[in-house]
Amino acid sequence: MSSPRVLSIQSHVVSGYVGNKSATFPLQLLGFEVDVINSVQLSNHTGYKVFKGQVLNDNDLKQLVDGLVQNDLDYYTHLLTGYIGSASFLKQVVEVVKKLKEKNPQLIYVCDPVMGDDGRMYVPEELKEIYQKEIVPLANIITPNSFELEILVGNKVNTISELRKAINDLHEIGPQIVAISSAEINGKLTSFVSTTTDHKMIKLEISKLPISFTGSGDLFAALFLAHTYLQDNIKIALENTINSLEDVLSKTYERFQTIKDDNAQRAKKVELCLIQSKKCIENPSQRYQATELN
């Protein structure tokens, strides 16, 4: 049996773990062949005091995909997209999705609609409409955080009933699976997954660490892609995703507490401990258990 193949289109950093650097290693550990296209290539993520690098444009993306097509290298089981910084590039992604689904009608498109967090957008406003009208209808699985969910549906999400409605609105547009990587509902940090196949909504409450991490959403999307493929049970897929993710974040926080170098940038101190978490990714713990919402 051939290995599942993923084309991952998102950001790349030379140093650190966000975007493709966050996604590739876990996917490979879990048995996936991973091809990457970097929407941007930066020295490090933008949380550092300085970052430098290049941004691919829509023609760059077209050229790379054309090369894959002409060499018959364009058969993928999955497409994963993350951070994209320009409207023209995102428009070209629409064409890539269509082209790859022509080659493999069973391709699973996992869209992480990276637009912002904590009430702040960090991509141009014009991307919102492209996601709403062109990208989301093509996606099989979508993994927004709660703020991105609000952007996509155009409504605030503060309660379970508002969350249900927002998720159902997304289902009506296209995705069969909606996974909310994190939402603070009733004072608790929670992940949610909803599917149209069995009409279930699953929740998993997680502990909230006192610091924030860059790249954790990218890691969530990659792990969730893997475990929805490896598991027939969506509840187990969410549990495996969150348990691996939380183990990575716990290791990162533990290391953060031991770093005594006051001159080190905070961003460097909280880079994900991805390599050190190899065993946690390969064999997720059972620390967190999901439950089905009534």
SSE order and pairing:
Layout: E1 5-13, H1 20-29, E2 33-42, E3 53-55, H2 58-70, E4 78-81, H3 87-103, E5 108-111, E6 116-117, E7 120-121, H4 127-135, E8 141-142, H5 146-153, H6 160-173, E9 177-185, E10 188-195, E11 201-205, H7 216-230, H8 234-258, H9 266-269, H10 278-282, E12 291-292
Helix pairs in contact: 1-7, 2-3, 3-4, 5-6, 7-8
Structure write-up:
With 294 residues, the chain is of the alpha/beta class. It has a single domain (5-292), classed as 3-Layer(aba) Sandwich (UDP-N-acetylmuramoyl-L-alanine:D-glutamate ligase). It is built from ten helices and twelve strands. It has helices spanning 20-29, 58-70, 87-103, 127-135, 146-153, 160-173, 216-230, 234-258, 266-269, 278-282, and strands at residues 5-13, 33-42, 53-55, 78-81, 108-111, 116-117, 120-121, 141-142, 177-185, 188-195, 201-205, 291-292. The protein has a ten-stranded mixed β-sheet with strand order 3-2-1-4-5-8-9-10-11-12, with helices on both faces. Strands 6-7 form a two-stranded antiparallel ribbon. Helix 1 (20-29) runs parallel beside helix 7 (216-230), helix 3 runs parallel beside helix 4 and helix 7 (216-230) runs antiparallel to helix 8 (234-258). The N and C termini lie far apart (39 Å).
